[in-house]
Structure formats: structure tokens, C-alpha cells
Amino acid sequence: MNWSRYKYILNDITSFSKFFVSCSKNQLFKKNLINIFNKATEDKTFCTVKKKLDPPWNVLFFGTDEFSVETLKSLHESQLEDKNRLVNKLEVACNPGQSAIRQYAVQFHLKIHDWPVNIEKGKYDVGVLASFGRLIPASVINNFPYGILNVHPSLLPRWRGSAPIIHTVLNGDKVTGISIMQLKPKRFDIGPVLFQKEVAVPYRITAVELCNHLAVLGGEILVNCLCDLPNLSKEEKQQDASKATYAPKITKWIGKLDWKNNTCIDIDQRYRAISSLIPVYTMWRNKKVKLRDIVDPNNTRDLLPAKFKNLPVGSVRFYQKENILLVKCKDGLVGFRKITYQNPMTAKDFFNGFISKTEQKCIVFNCDNNEESCVS
Fold first, then answer.
1. For the segment 255-274, what is each residue's pLDDT rounded down to a tens digit?
2. Cβ contacts of residue 332 below 8 Å, gap of 6+?
3. For the chain, what is the total number of helices (H) and then of strands (E)?
């Protein structure tokens, strides 16, 4: 039997069902009946409040960061409209302490609930979540007649997890988008999808730039979904778990470059994905070298072929014409205009202070005292 087909019918009869279960004295019967209901709805509890069929909606918003703010802003603007309002009551749930969401809520006098929250059944029609970073239990989700909608910045099941935008850039995806999905307890990003919007990933965009773009788009799409919420809820589609990819939180080690195995494109994608949070770096003389302000690798990959022909990967020369450091990697050269070695400096400063003092006018990153290994 396909239990999901009967989910909406079961929601309508839940009040009677729960009463029937609670009155039964047969504990085994109660347990079996509850298991049947749980399997059918894929949740641990049921919302027994009758659903409204038309806006405006009463909304509780869950969020934390700047990405969240754009969705909250779209909801707030809808609340302020005189005609065709989609949002009636708007309140905010956020973590204790300062955050971009709390700052916005305070500025515009929106009521704030500190996490964890206790939701009164029937107080809100729908929850909306964007970049909250916490699993919401079924006991909270099911107190919303329409559940909680998650604004997720990828085309699910592509990039489930906490860092979808970073992994989109890191892996060189050509398309991304926004998914509006129903939140489920216990695991992130597994719920059914109500709506998706696909967008092309602009050439050499950074994760920060893509985040800003998708944040605005996500707010717009969420508001559009609220216009047709009852119908979209009935037409939700389950994700194909076999196609899922995962976007775990990044660690500081992801910044270390491997000149032997990384291509020019690999390094460029990594730089654009993480450099706002973690610098890309290498080692020289047992000290960390942070590389900054990368140059389009299409403009540097094939420069100075004669001078780099016999040099090992990691070799560094100064390209005076463009004032950049060129580093040899797996398939060519990558260029950087700035560097931090002991102190921040330009590529020219690093050349004058270090590279120019070697006879070969070349050094090799990732090695210790290895200027002698360079071949002119």
C-alpha cells in the first residue's frame, strides 16, 4: 500500500484517531495503530488544526544569517502591503545572541522567540525557514497546519547539507537554483519539494556573490509559493535519494593547495568558493603562505612556457608585466596579485624581499629551503 497517498486524508481524521487511540486500553493495539499513522505521514506527530485555504497567513520565520534576512525581508514587505497581503502575522524564531536576523527583527519591531521554541498549535499557519542550522523536531513542525517550508539554495537533491553554495562553486556547477521544500525531522534537506527554480551559475562568480544572488531570489520565490500554498502542498514531489550529493561544513584544511594534483581550474574554483572564510595557502620554509587576489587562470595558464618548462610543480616566478606571482601546478600556471608571508604584501614586494635574492629568481612552494631545486 502506498501510504503517502493517504496522508492528507489521515490529517483530516487525526482528531478522531488520536482520541480513539488514547481511549484504548490495549497497549499493543495502541502501539500498532500509532505506527501505522506514523508510517503514513512520515512524521512522529500530526497537526490536527484545520488548514486555512487562502492568505493572508500567520507565519513564524526561522533564520540566522544574511541569507535568511532576504527571505524575512520579502515576508515583511508582503505583510506591509495594503492590497493582496500574503502575510498577516509575522514573528521570528532565532538563536540566542546577536545575529543578522535578530538585528532585523529588532529594527522592525517583529516579535522574537528564542530557540528552542514552544509552538502553540494553530497559532501559525505555516513556518518558513532559511539557513537556520538546527534540526526542528516533529513536535514543532506538526504544530503548523502547512508544516515548515525551507528555502534551500540548491536544486535538491543536489547539495544537501550546511554549505550548498560553497560546494556549488567548489565543484564548478554550471547551474544551481532555489528549492522550496517541506521540512522533515531528524535529517536535513530530505523533505518533499514544492517548487524549484533553476538559474545559471555566472562565470567565475564567488560563493559570496552567488549567496547574495540566491538569497534575493529565494525570498521572491518563497513569497510566490505562499500565493498558491494549498495547491503546492498537494503537489509536492519526493526527492530521488539516489541522486543526492552532500555539502558538509568546510574545515580549515580545505584551503591547503596541492600543486601536484590541483589543476588551474581546481585552484580557481577553490579560491572563489572559500576565500571569504578561509584563505587558500601553501607552505614555504616551514611557514604558511596565504595566496590572495587570484587572476583568471585562462589568462595565466600558458604564460612563460619556456621559463617554467623544466621546473617542478610549486615553482614560483614573478611576472613583472602584470605584477603577479605565477605558480606552476598540475596543468599550467596560476597567478596571484597579493600574498601573506609573515605580513601582507603585494606580489612585487614578495619578489623584491625574497625571490630576487635567489640566483635563479625562482622559489618552490611546499618545500623547505628548496630554491636550489629550481632550474633556470
1. 999 999 999 999 999 999 99
2. 263, 264, 297, 300, 301, 302
3. 12, 14
